[in-house]
């Protein structure tokens, strides 16, 4: 269910003189987070909707929440999903999040869905807002007593470059997470893509503290000095799920939630069934796969991958992201999941003229030669980048000289800074000190 209401902005430099803009608040049930759930399943959340109110902040220092996660389930140019985490002692605070266009005076209160943090006494308030303006700044806060942050919607077109910070295998080592986060934020990314293995809690109740540390790092270091919070787009890795990989035991959403409780609760995207796609206008699509963790690669997911890629033939920047690499730089080339990715997904990438895929899992940095049909091909090949070592200890790499598909491989923590232009992607790999360790330019897809 969606509710439209006029949001009078008055004299706002973001919109011009005395303009009015419609905003839509969309509430989605937490269990399950299903893109196809019916309106009837969500209507109950609107019974508590009350008149919007303005607030004035009291004097004194504002408090930071124990966790903030921004992401999308709809169009990133006109929507946002905000998760504001609360400690149990703040459970009497109304389930709402306040927002306004940055630079305006009047706050509006949006009723939130409140649900428990798995294996914890913490709470999460979630709202989804649609109908925003592209490439525009909005402030938000949990209450007048809490700190104010802001986000920026994505541009409708590439009239300006779009900057993405990408990587994977974040880990439980807070010191290293903070270093890499800070290095990434020096490049002022529009958003962050993490391809799995986030906190390394393995879905276990006794490791909930790893999520607390992970979220602490996000609040402390994945925010600009001016308070801008970049949205994050996450995929599933083996350390999100108890037992590591799909073994013919996941037959329903309830099974997935049982085996990966944190992942399915803490991130609105991708939601059920654990893979999905985000379309940024008509210029970029991020296709997030689940490489045999809570969903098998073969079968329904490969059918979905085929349809998803074919439907986006005209998108100039179409980037698959997944955890286990098709072209590993540390693990065995003949590993079961790597072989499955090469068998089921790589042919689809090649049929749809993909030029870049992001891989993780091996705790190294790697860049492949352009690969097409199992051979180096400079004209038609796909470059596979990453191998995931945002903050995890790097592992030894295969010899570049002895591994035909590796152009560069190094044992180093890193993130990718991807700057998207209409005709190309400029990519820099940086280490935690911010130093460049590699660079490549990849053209947009031909149509």
Alpha-beta classification? alpha+beta
Query: Distance between the terminal alpha carbons, to the nearest Å?
Result: 37 Å
Strand content: 25-35%
Number of helices: 7
Shape: globular
For the CA atoms, what is the radius of gyration?
21 Å
CATH topology of the largest domain: Purple Acid Phosphatase, chain A, domain 2
Q: Provide the low-confidence segments as ranges.
A: 1-23, 26-59
What is the residue-averaged pLDDT?
Answer: 88
Based on DSSP secondary structure assignment, what is the total number of beta strands? 25
Full CATH superfamily name of the largest domain = Metallo-dependent phosphatases
Give helix % range.
10-25%
How many strands, what sense, and barrel or not for the largest sheet? 6 strands, antiparallel
State the CATH architecture of the largest domain.
4-Layer Sandwich
Q: What does this molecule look like?
A:
With 447 residues, this protein is α+β, with helices and mostly antiparallel strands. The chain folds into two domains: 2-152, Sandwich (Immunoglobulin-like), CATH 2.60.40.380; 162-443, Metallo-dependent phosphatases (Purple Acid Phosphatase, chain A, domain 2). The chain is built from seven helices and 25 strands. Helix 1 (174-185) packs parallel to helix 2. The longest helix is centred in the middle third of the chain and has 14 residues, at 208-221. The two termini are 37 Å apart. The model is unreliable at 1-23 and 26-59 (pLDDT under 50).
